[in-house]
C-alpha cells in the first residue's frame, strides 16, 4: 500500500496479458475434453446407423414371417411333428431293446432269448416282413400266390435286398416231425426258398399260438419297421401295401388293419364260437375293436412286445381277437385302413379305375378269396397294380 504507484498504462498491459493467458488456457482445456469425449464415444453416428439397420432387419424379418406363405409355415410344423414322432419312436425302440436285453440275460425271465437278439447289429435289416400264413394242405394256394402278386426266385431276393421287403410262407411242423408232411414242405422249400419254419405244431385251433410264434420268430431274425401277417387266399398289391405302411414308419406302437368289432358268439357248435364269452360281459356283447384276421401289420415295438411276453399272452379262440387283446391295454395307435379290405371284382376293379388302388382284396363271405386257387389270377389281372409298382416305391 505504501509502495510506488503503478501507472495506468502498466495496469492496462497487465490486464491484457492476463486476458490473453486465460483465453489460451481455456482453449486448451476444451480441446482436451473434446478429444477425451471422442475417445470414449468413438464414431457415434456409426452406432446409430448400426442400430437403425438392425431394427430394420428385425422389422423386415417379422414382416416376412407375417407375409410368408401359409404352406411354408405348415411345412415347418409338419417337419417338427415328424421329428417329434421319430424321437418318440427311437425312445420306444431303445426301451424295447433294453427290455429284450434284460430278458436275455435274466435266468428268471419269462422268456429266454438268444443273446444276439439284444443287439440289432446281428439282425437282418428290412422295412417290412410279410408272413403268409399257410398250411400243409395249401400247396395249390401257395402256387397261385407265386404266380400272381408274390415275386419268386431271383426277384424275391432282389426285392429283399434292394427294397427291404421280405416275404415268406409261414408254417410250423406236423405232430410227427420228419413225417411225410414235413418232407413235402422241405422239398418245396428247397425249390423256392420262400418259407419261414416255426417251432410250432400246425392245427386250425392253434392259430393264436402260431401268430405269437410267427412274430416272435420274425423279430429274432429281421430288424424291420413293420411285420405283416396275411392269409394265403388274399390278393395283395405290394407297392400299395408298403406305401400305406410308410406313412406310419415314424410312429411307435402302430397296429394297422381293417378294424372291426363283431359279436361274441357264445353258442356252441357255430363258427367262431368263443368259449370264454363270459369274459366280455353279458350275452350279445361285442368284442373290443381289433383288426380283421385276413391281413394286418404291427410295428417293431409291438412285435418285440409279443416276443418278450410270449408265455403270458392269453389266447382266445379267434386269432384276430387274441392279437387285439394283447394291445388293448397298451399305448397303441389303431389305424383303420380300409384299403386292406377291398372286395374282389368288381369292387377292387372299380376302385382301381377311380385311382383308389387297393392294398388287399378278398371276399368277406369266405374270409378270403372264394375258390382262390381258381380266381386269384383273375383278381390279379383285374385289380393288380402291375409288376413294376413295388420297385417304384420310395422307402
UniProtKB/TrEMBL annotation:
Q: How does it sit in the membrane?
A: Single-pass type II membrane protein
InterPro entries in UniProt: DUF4094 (IPR025298), Glyco_trans_31 (IPR002659)
Q: What is its main location?
A: Golgi
Q: Give the location in the cell.
A: Golgi apparatus membrane
Residue ranges annotated for the DUF4094 domain, each copy included: 7-104
Look up the record and name the cofactor or cofactors this protein needs. Answer: Mn(2+)
For this protein, the Enzyme Commission number is 2.4.1.-
GO molecular function per UniProt = hexosyltransferase activity
Could you state one GO cellular component term attached to this entry? Answer: Golgi membrane
Family the entry assigns: Belongs to the glycosyltransferase 31 family.
Name assigned to this protein: Hexosyltransferase
Which organism is this entry from?
Juglans regia
Amino acid at each position: 500500500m505504501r509502495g510506488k504507484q503503478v501507472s495506468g498504462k502498466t495496469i492496462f498491459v497487465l490486464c491484457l496479458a492476463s486476458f490473453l493467458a486465460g483465453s489460451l488456457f481455456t482453449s486448451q482445456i476444451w480441446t482436451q475434453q473434446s478429444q477425451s469425449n471422442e475417445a470414449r464415444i468413438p464414431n457415434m453416428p456409426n452406432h446409430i446407423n448400426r442400430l437403425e439397420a438392425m431394427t430394420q432387419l428385425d422389422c423386415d424379418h417379422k414382416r416376412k414371417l407375417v407375409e410368408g406363405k401359409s404352406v411354408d409355415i405348415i411345412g415347418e410344423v409338419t417337419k417338427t411333428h415328424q421329428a417329434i414322432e421319430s424321437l418318440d419312436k427311437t425312445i420306444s425302440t431303445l426301451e424295447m431293446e433294453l427290455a429284450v436285453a434284460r430278458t436275455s440275460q435274466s435266468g428268471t425271465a419269462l422268456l429266454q432269448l438268444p443273446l444276439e437278439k439284444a443287439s440289432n447289429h446281428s439282425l437282418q435289416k428290412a422295412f417290412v416282413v410279410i408272413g403268409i400264413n399257410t398250411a400243409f394242405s395249401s400247396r395249390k394256394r401257395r402256387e397261385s400266390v407265386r404266380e400272381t402278386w408274390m415275386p419268386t426266385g431271383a426277384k424275391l431276393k432282389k426285392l429283399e435286398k434292394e427294397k427291404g421287403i421280405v416275404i415268406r410262407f409261414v408254417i410250423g411242423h406236423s405232430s410227427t416231425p420228419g413225417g411225410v408232411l414235413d418232407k413235402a414242405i422241405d422239398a418245396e422249400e428247397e425249390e423256392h426258398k420262400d418259407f419261414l419254419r416255426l417251432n410250432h405244431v400246425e392245427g386250425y385251433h392253434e392259430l393264436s399260438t402260431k401268430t405269437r410264434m410267427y412274430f416272435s420268430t420274425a423279430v429274432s431274425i429281421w430288424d424291420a419297421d413293420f411285420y405283416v401277417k396275411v392269409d394265403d387266399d388274399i390278393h395283395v398289391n405290394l407297392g400299395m401295401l408298403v406305401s400305406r405302411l410308410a406313412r406310419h414308419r415314424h410312429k411307435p406302437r402302430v397296429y394297422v388293419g381293417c378294424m372291426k368289432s363283431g359279436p361274441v358268439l357264445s353258442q356252441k357248435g357255430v363258427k367262431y364260437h368263443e368259449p370264454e364269452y363270459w369274459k366280455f360281459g353279458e350275452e350279445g356283447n361285442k368284442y373290443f375293436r381289433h383288426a380283421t384276421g385276413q391281413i394286418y401289420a404291427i410295428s417293431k415295438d409291438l412285435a418285440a412286445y409279443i416276443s418278450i411276453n410270449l408265455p403270458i399272452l392269453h389266447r382266445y379262440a379267434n386269432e384276430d381277437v387274441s392279437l387285439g387283446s394283447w394291445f388293448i391295454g397298451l399305448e397303441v395307435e389303431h389305424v383303420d385302413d380300409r384299403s386292406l379290405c377291398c372286395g374282389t371284382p368288381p369292387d377292387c376293379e372299380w376302385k382301381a379305375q377311380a385311382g383308389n388302388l387297393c392294398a388287399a382284396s378278398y371276399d368277406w363271405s369266405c374270409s378270403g378269396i372264394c375258390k382262390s386257387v381258381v380266381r386269384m389270377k383273375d383278381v390279379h389281372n383285374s385289380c393288380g397294380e402291375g409288376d413294376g409298382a413295388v420297385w417304384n416305391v420310395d422307402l
